[in-house]
Write a structure and sequence with these properties.
Layout: H1 3-6, H2 8-11, H3 22-32, H4 41-62, H5 67-89
Helix pairs in contact: 4-5
Amino acid sequence: MPISDRYRDWDREEHPPACNCADCVERRMKEIRKVSWAWWLLPIFLMWIGGLIAWGCTKKKIGERAKDYIWLGIAIFIIVGTIIWMALFGI
């Protein structure tokens, strides 16, 4: 693809996808805020499986931040697993 075709939209006052100007960053932040807080309930109640479900459903909207759902699910899984282990074996 020639360079002129690649930046054709940019010439029409539209910014390229990787633009980091204040307006583009603000627009991306508004898109990120569109994800409901209720997605955090899945990893809390379903642990790592809920984290995977929440990540799969929101990764296109919030990108890298979607990994936080997986990490929360894994952390809760480890905490609950440790508590159950301690209760069963009396540690």
